[in-house]
């Protein structure tokens, strides 16, 4: 089994990760909402559209 963060071989102590570092990276993605489960519920779509309308554009 390979680590889902870096693809190295996993270590039993940190499974499914290879190290504490990769486990922490994954946890950070969850806590910062880097992962999301898509929803097609109408109320979720309405909320997302409202948030987009209220978010100022990002200058590059």
From TrEMBL:
Cofactor remark from the record: Binds 1 zinc ion.
Superkingdom in the source lineage: Bacteria
Keywords per UniProt: Metal-binding, Zinc
Positions of Zn(2+) binding: 3, 6, 18, 22
Keyword match Metal-binding: yes
Cofactor(s) of this protein: Zn(2+)
Keyword rRNA processing found: no
A Pfam short name: YacG
Entries under HAMAP family matching the protein: DNA_gyrase_inhibitor_YacG
Homology family: Belongs to the DNA gyrase inhibitor YacG family.
Function: Inhibits all the catalytic activities of DNA gyrase by preventing its interaction with DNA. Acts by binding directly to the C-terminal domain of GyrB, which probably disrupts DNA binding by the gyrase.
Quaternary structure annotation from Swiss-Prot or TrEMBL: Interacts with GyrB.
Name this polypeptide is given: DNA gyrase inhibitor YacG
